[in-house]
């Protein structure tokens, strides 16, 4: 079969499968894996090595988009979730599974460490996509899950390096580590200099052309060039893309870049999972069917218990239970780890053929249950440990005013609206402010004002206007972009503290800027002259 026929057949099969699976709320990732498995059964002469090179760029773009969210500011806000929860989860899980593989299954220590490392990871692609779509990513359990996933994604880099070290028996480990450190310093310096002194200017010139395809092509260039630079110094393509994402995260173009690259990332990720499916041998699954099911159930249970115990030390039982169910599966990066370990003869081909279906089963499990985590947990735990008011408002509501932010200023705005008898809905992300609003009897909903689901829940399409009473310009930009994507004509009123914000935010099509310092100055002078 020629390459074009193969592409057409694969696309057709993946679309049909995903349409069917969507009716059962199963992730497209499972559909892609099934597609690869079916194609591999009927076409034995596929050059998988060439497809694997293409598919690897799905992981590259996934790591780049993760890097976009991994700024220094982001780290400071989530340091506990990332470095405490994340590090404990990865280290404890690796240790336990390594011990089980070594003692119970009698694998040598190298193989056991690889197995433990692969099983410690969870699915960033599935979990974040579901948490984003159902609005749970900003709940406390969603935040904890995201923090752990970020650390897991960082842990992939040393795990892949560890495989290289373990595969090279003759090499001096000290020399490998020193060479790796030197290379990392050189790559970091190059990317830092480019990011600090050239990147912003380069993107500014590109944006000034006002040609969308040039902007997208420039981002592709930055991602691929960073990946190539890292690879030329002995690192993975993914590491270079991740660092590029971190650099761009510090620019004002990160949100537009993220929106433009999501289709590329998802399509290439689809190719990646199709190639994973092509590695599955049906005969191996049939011969080891009960073993695969037993291992899948055991790993899911052990991993969930470990995550629950770790989280329970720091937080509520209910929240720990949610995070444990959310992250119990084995992630997509495990495929890359197992593939590299097999290529370096650290695990046998036969073992790989058992572990790959185990990972796939865990992903199917996650695809089915992840959307119902809160419903399932609420059956056993009735008490409220997470403050989130569900939008219980009439679908017929219209001409209301949405207030984004319920801090001191937001509270005064709401009071004025209420005193004038105007219909309003406030959105706030701080639990204490929301609680305070409920005590006052104000209509305040806990949530992220930039989330599409949140804006739709407060009936943005029927609203009269939106007041944004938030000080963080980065959050303001994200909120306004989300609003404009849903309703391009609704008036937006923004509170600012200095005139330079108008220049920084003028591209957002904001209708009114209210400068609080100017208003305060006028009132002070007015009262001084009485």
Topology:
Elements: H1 3-22, H2 28-42, H3 48-68, H4 72-77, H5 79-103, H6 109-120, H7 124-133, H8 140-167, H9 173-208, H10 212-232, H11 237-248, H12 254-278, H13 282-287, H14 289-314, H15 317-326, H16 333-343, H17 349-369, H18 373-380, E1 401-404, H19 408-419, E2 424-428, H20 431-440, E3 444-446, H21 452-457, E4 465-468, H22 473-486, E5 492-496, H23 500-505, E6 512-515, H24 516-528
Parallel strand pairs: 1-2, 1-4, 2-3, 4-5, 5-6
Gist?
With 530 residues, this protein is mainly α. The protein has 2 domains: 3-380, Na+/H+ antiporter like fold, CATH 1.20.1530.20; 401-528, Rossmann fold (3-Layer(aba) Sandwich), CATH 3.40.50.
Characterization of the model:
- This protein has 24 helices and six strands.
- A six-stranded parallel beta sheet has the order 3-2-1-4-5-6.
- It has two domains: 378 residues, Na+/H+ antiporter like fold (Up-down Bundle), CATH 1.20.1530; 128 residues, 3-Layer(aba) Sandwich (Rossmann fold).
- α10 packs across α11 and α14 crosses α17.
- Helix content is 71%, strand content 5%.
- It has 530 residues and is mainly alpha-helical.
- The N and C termini lie far apart (89 Å).
- The radius of gyration is 25 Å and the shape is globular.
């Amino acid at each position: 079969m020629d390459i074009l026929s193969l592409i057409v057949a694969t696309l057709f099969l993946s679309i049909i499968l995903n349409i069917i699976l969507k009716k059962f709320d199963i992730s497209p990732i499972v559909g892609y894996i099934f597609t690869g498995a079916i194609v591999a059964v009927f076409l034995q002469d596929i050059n998988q090595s060439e497809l694997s090179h293409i598919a690897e760029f799905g992981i590259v773009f996934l790591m780049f988009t993760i890097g976009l969210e991994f700024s220094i500011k982001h780290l400071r806000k989530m340091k506990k979730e990332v470095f405490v929860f994340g590090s404990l989860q990865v280290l404890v899980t690796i240790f336990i599974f390594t011990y089980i593989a070594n003692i119970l299954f009698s694998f040598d220590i190298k193989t056991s460490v690889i197995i433990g490392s692969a099983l410690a990871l969870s699915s960033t692609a599935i979990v974040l996509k579901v948490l984003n779509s159902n609005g749970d990513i900003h709940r406390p359990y969603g935040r904890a899950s995201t923090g752990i996933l970020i650390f897991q994604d960082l842990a992939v880099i040393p795990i892949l390096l560890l495989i290289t070290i373990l595969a090279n028996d003759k090499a001096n480990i000290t020399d490998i580590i020193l060479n790796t450190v030197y290379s990392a310093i050189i790559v970091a310096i190059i990317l830092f200099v480019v990011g600090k002194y050239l990147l912003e200017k380069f993107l500014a010139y590109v944006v000034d052309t006002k040609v969308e395809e040039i902007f997208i092509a420039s981002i592709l260039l930055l991602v691929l060039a960073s990946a190539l630079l890292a690879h030329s110094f002995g690192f993975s393509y993914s590491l270079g893309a991740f660092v590029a994402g971190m650099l761009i995260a510090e620019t004002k173009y990160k949100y537009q870049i993220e929106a433009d690259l999501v289709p590329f990332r998802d399509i290439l990720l689809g190719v990646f999972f199709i190639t994973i499916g092509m590695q599955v041998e049906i005969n191996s699954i049939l011969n080891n069917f009960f073993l695969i099911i037993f291992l899948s159930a055991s790993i899911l249970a052990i991993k969930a218990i470990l995550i629950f115990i770790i989280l329970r030390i720091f937080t509520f039982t209910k929240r720990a239970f949610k995070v444990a169910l959310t992250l119990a599966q084995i992630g997509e990066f495990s495929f890359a780890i197992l593939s590299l370990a097999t290529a370096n003869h650290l695990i046998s081909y036969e073992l790989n053929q058992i572990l790959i279906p185990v990972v796939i089963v865990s992903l199917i499990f996650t695809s089915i249950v992840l959307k119902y985590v809160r419903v399932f947990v609420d059956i056993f735990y009735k008490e409220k440990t997470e403050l989130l008011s569900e939008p219980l408002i009439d679908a017929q509501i219209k001409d209301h005013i949405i207030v984004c932010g319920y801090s001191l200023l937001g509270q005064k705005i709401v009071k004025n609206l209420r005193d004038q008898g105007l219909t309003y809905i406030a959105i706030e992300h701080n639990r204490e402010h929301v609680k305070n609003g409920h005590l006052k009897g104000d209509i305040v909903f806990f949530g992220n004002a930039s989330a599409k689901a949140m804006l739709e829940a407060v009936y943005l399409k029927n609203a009269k206007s939106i007041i944004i009473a938030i000080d963080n310009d980065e959050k303001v930009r994200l909120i306004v972009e989300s609003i404009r994507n849903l309703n391009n004509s609704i008036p937006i009123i923004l509170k600012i503290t200095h005139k330079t914000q108008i220049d920084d935010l003028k591209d957002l099509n904001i209708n009114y800027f209210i400068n609080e310092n100017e208003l305060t100055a006028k009132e002070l002078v007015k009262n001084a002259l009485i």
